[in-house]
Here is the input.
Amino acid sequence: LVVGLGGTKRSGSSSERALRFALDAAADAGAEVRCFGGTDLDFPIFVPEMLGEDHEATELIETLAVADGVIVATPGYHGGISGQVKNALDYVEELRDDHRPYFDGRAVGCIVCAHGTHAAFTTLVSLRSVIHALRGWPTPLGVCLNSAVRPEDLIDARAAEQLQAMAGQVVDFATRGALSL
Ligand SMILES: Cc1cc2nc3c(=O)[nH]c(=O)nc-3n(C[C@H](O)[C@H](O)[C@H](O)COP(=O)(O)O)c2cc1C
Here is the structure.
């Protein structure tokens, strides 16, 4: 099971389109997939007092707990991860005491869409740092897409190749049965 999370609530969200493309590629590689897009991540700001309680993010967290791989897609907002995606990732604190804490033992593919390369790259670095903090294994390939193009040009042949390769790395890592450290 590969779980995707990310995108924005904006109609035609580029990051959500890229996420869904990567999940389709993971499905083609043999994975069962589940997507939590922008409208599915409309959670209140996480506060630690919520831990252990039923809340809007419960379905996401229960699905992540049984995931074999994860793909996260965020827009670059002012050079970093969007508040919405970071807030969803903050809820992963619910998995702190899981038998596989947070994203332990799972490969995590990272996708960033921004209006240009500068914010995309800085956001990719910070997203990977967050994934490391959650004990996930960022895939060697992260994908940065320039969303300042016509929507139909967002996922061109090169972007498609990269998203497919990254999704393949997530599925491959899951199939090998990564060691939990
Ligand atoms: C609040 C906000 C801040 C943004 N900051 C940047 C930025 O610093 N650099 C950049 O290249 N693009 C920036 N953008 C553009 C977004 O990264 C770009 O439009 C992205 O594709 C939005 O994701 P979406 O299509 O999934 O909604 C910003 C957009 C918004 C709304």
Observations:
- Residues 65 and 98 are 8 Å apart (CA to CA).
- Residues 157-176 form the longest helix (20 residues).
- The chain has five helices and seven strands.
- The mean pLDDT is 95.
